[in-house]
Structure formats: C-alpha cells, structure tokens
Amino acid sequence: MSESISIAVVGSGYVGLVAAVCFAEIGHTVICVDNDERKVAALQGGDTLIHENHLPELLNRYRNNRVRFTTDLAEATREAQAIFIAVGTPQSETGDADLSYVEAVACEIARSIDSYKVIVEKSTVPVYTNEWIRRAIERNGVEQRLFDVVSNPEFLREGTAVEDFLHPDRIVVGADTPEAIKLLGAIYEPLTGGEYYNQTGAIGGCCNASTPPVLLNTSIKSAEIIKHASNAFLALKISFINAVSNLCEATEANVEQVAKGIGLDSRIGPKFLRPGIGYGGSCFPKDVAAFRSVADQFGINFNLLSEVENINASQKRRFLAKVRSALWTLRGKKLGVLGLAFKGETDDIRDSPSIEMIRMLLAEGCSIVAYDPAAKERAMEVLPEGKQLSYADTAYDAAKDVDALLVLTDWTEFVELDLPRLHKTLRYPIVIDGRNLYDPGAMAALGFTYISVGRPTAHPARESGSLTTPGRRA
Ligand code: UDX
Predict the structure, then answer these.
(1) Shared-domain flag, residues 310 and 429
(2) Res. 462 pLDDT band, cuts 50 70 90
(3) Using CA atoms, how far apart are residues 67 and 62, in angstroms rounded to an integer?
(4) Residue-by-residue DSSP string for 424-435
(5) Is 283 in the pocket of ligand 1 (CB under 6 A)?
(6) Per-residue pLDDT reduced to its tens digit, 445-454
(7) Does the C-beta of 285 come closer than 6 Å to ligand 1?
(8) Which residue's CA lies nearest to atom 1 of ligand 1?
C-alpha cells in the first residue's frame, strides 16, 4: 500500500480542483484552498463549478471527507506536508506572466510554516519563478531548512483533465534536494508504481499497471522550461498545419490527407495537426506570449514564436473572409453558430476563437443565433443577448432559418448531429466549418454547400458548380 500524504492545493480552478480530487483518488488527504468564499461555499455545497468529465463523480465521492474546501491557507499550510500552488498566472500587458497571485500565496504560506514543507509550483510559470518563491519565503523570515521549492508542471487538457492527470504521458518533477524528491516520488507512487490502475473503479485511460507513467526528475529550471516549451511546441504544430491548410486551399489539395501523410512519420506524430480557426484557451495564447517574453528578457531570438502567433491570428481573419465570400455580403445576414467554448467538451471560453469570431461577425452587421452544449452561461457574461445576438437551446434551434451555419467548436455532439434534419432546418443549406467535423463528400451528397479548412469546397451533388450565393428567399 502506498503512503497517504497530507496535501494542500491552493487554487480551485481547472488545475487546482482537478489535482485535488485526483490526489484524493490515489489515496491522499487533501485540503483545497481558495480565497474566494463563494467558490469555497459552492464546492462545499456540492457544486462542481466547471464542466469536466469524471469531476462530478470524484467530487461526490471525496467532498468533505478526503477533500476539504477552505479559505484558510494558514491552517492548510500547518496541516500539509506538501503545498501545491495552482493559482492563475494571467497574461500581463507586456505579454509576460503576471505572478502577483503566486507571490501573494508564497508570502502567506511563509507566515504559517512551523515545520518542514515542500512547496510545489503547479501553475505554468516562467523559468526562475521557483527562485523568486524561495526568496519571498526567506524574506518572510523562514529558515532554509524548513522548506523546499519544487516545480511540478501540470500537462492536463481541459475536457479530459481527470483522465490526463491519472494517465499522464509523464510526470515532471524539478527538485534539487533528496527530501523533496522523495516526497514527490511518494505522492505519485500510486501512479508510477501502477497500483492505482489495479484499484477497483479506477478511471480508465492509456496507462495500466504494466505500463505506468514515468516520473522524470529534472532541475527546477528545466522543469519550468519543459512546461512552457511543451505548450509552445504544440501551438507551433497547430500553426504549422494551419499554414499548410492555407496552401492546400490555394492549390485544391486536402489538408486532412496531408496531415495524415506527415503524421504517419513517427518523428512527427499525428497529434495536434488538426487545422481550424486557430488555437485558444487559457494556456496556449498566454504561454506562447510568456515564453517569447522570457526569451526576450534573456536576449534570445525566438521570433519563431511571433510567427506562431501571427499565423494563429490570421486564421480567424481568413475564416471571416470565407464567410463573406460564401454569403457575398455580411450586413443583415442571419447566421447560426455552433460552439462558444475554445474547444469541445469544456465550458471554458477564455481566449475562445469562437467568441472572437462572433465579435467580428457582429461588427460586420450580422445577426447571430448561437448554441453551445455547456458554455452558454459563461458566453452570456461577455456577449450578452441583444438585437443582433441570441442563444439557442439546441443545435437545430440555432440552425433555424439562418443564411448559413458556422461550426466553431469541435464538440462531439456536433459530429453526431442528424444532418438531414439540419439540412431541412436551414434557410440555405450552407455550412462553414472551422473545425473540419464533417466529410465533404457526405455533405455534398446530402445537398449542402460545405466549406471547411484546407479542403476543397463541396457543392451539393445536384448543383455542382460555383458557390450558391444566397439572396433573400421570396
Ligand atoms: C493545453 C495543453 O494541451 C495541455 O498540455 C496544457 O496543460 C494546457 O494547455 P488545453 O488548453 O486544455 O490544453 O487544450 P488543447 O486540447 O491542448 O487545445 C488547445 C487549443 O488548440 C484549442 O483551442 C484547440 O481547439 C486547439 N487545437 C488543438 C487545434 O486547433 N488543433 C489541434 O490539432 C489541437
């Protein structure tokens, strides 16, 4: 049996909350701390706060027993052997990460340390942050022998966060003292030793007892750079395939075939080669900017990252141009929009390409009926209903009598739509898909004009030829 360790997790956002319940799931006792009293009360009362697969069942199982929620960081610090910092690191105006929350937490922890603690940085932070945390704690009068600082970056993706946490490709621990390495090793032992995967009711995924995840011990600075470099590299892959998709469009090649062809090279791999309207979310845009800014600060030329950002921004403008060319003019057109979240299976709209597209389309004078399976409430906070914008309760309602239907998020629900029903619902059977969810041949056979990314436009089987330009139906 692995040892049960007392852990505090500071921050109850996507990373903190998921880490807290997953640590409980692998046998540890967790205190989850947040300074937002309303959030803590909601979590104590049974709310899950975010839309995340497996989170409701785990919260149900561990809430108020193996996972306690509190606003009291001092008490949590005194009780825990390891304190994980998982607070936000938003982007500052200059592009680098704003570390004021991390600093505030470090200082507060320092004021309550009364025995040896390992302080673990889990938020994505620039290299040298751990050094600053160490100094902040020392400045608050804590002796060096009473604490270690460790970098343990989290690689979970929203939507599959619980599964990613429990079935990671790797666990990175940047630590430089034997005590800290030992404690982090013990925390992850149920995963790295394979024990968890034999547990009754264990959440399934790619790891099992015979192929458990690897724990990679590195220096603290390497671990910090691994996190930024991983996200920047994935963003680069997406921008690369988006640039290739533009070339495919210009030459009437098919980017799906090209992505498959290059992805089969095991040195490249098939993942993160899906073209679309650009990456978004709370990590890639912020982390690419922060990594570029870190390179700048050290005088390193990393203009490659600026190009990644440029391609990402231009992808949305290209999509807008596609909508315009399909509809001739935009002013006064009624559009259905499927998807508000930055990607499928999440309710997160932070830096969502869809939200930005809707803003651009509204500015062009379109009216929009939008639908998302989970992100409507959050979207309504930033894009309230009005004369030009309303929200539908189903995909079919969003498609009702519109001049074209735009697909902006890759929800599985959209892949599974009844397409013949959708065809009957639309005023004009035009689908402009920013996520390549459907097969162009099948869409043409169903009578749609189907415009996607990096693939030739498919025209209705019966009316092959140029694009149908809709006028108002008499
Ligand atoms: C990302 C990283 O994957 C994860 O390791 C890290 O911990 C946090 O940042 P996340 O932002 O949750 O996770 O989502 P991810 O699935 O990586 O997608 C990010 C964005 O890229 C989304 O907007 C998605 O739609 C887009 N994307 C992803 C593509 O456009 N094409 C792809 O092939 C993959």
Answers:
(1) yes
(2) low
(3) 5
(4) HHSSS-EEEESS
(5) yes
(6) 999 999 999 9
(7) no
(8) 157
Radius of gyration of the chain (CA): 24
Average pLDDT (73-77) is 97
Q: What is the DSSP string of 345-395?
A: T----TT-HHHHHHHHHHHTT-EEEEE-SS-HHHHHHHS---SSEEE-SSH
Q: DSSP character for 287?
A: H
Are residues 204 and 138 located together in one domain of the fold? yes
Specify the CATH number for the domain of residue 243.
3.40.50.720
> Residues, the chain, total?
474
| Beta carbons of 433 and 450 less than 8 angstroms apart | yes
Residue 94 confidence (pLDDT): 85
Q: What percent of the chain is predicted at pLDDT more than 70?
A: 97
**Residue that finishes a domain, picked among 166, 192, 218:** 218
Mutate to test the pocket of ligand 1, among 238, 242, 314, 350 (most ligand atoms within 8 A of CB): 238
Q: Is the CB of 83 under 6 A from ligand 1?
A: no
CB 74 within 8 A of CB 8: no
Distances from the Cα of 322 to the Cαs of 166, 186, 188, 417, in angstroms?
A: 41, 53, 48, 23
Check pocket membership of 339 for ligand 1, CB cut-off 6 A: no
Cα first-last separation, the chain? 74
> Does 283 qualify as catalytic in the annotation?
yes
Give the Å distance between the CA of 54 and the centre of ligand 1: 19
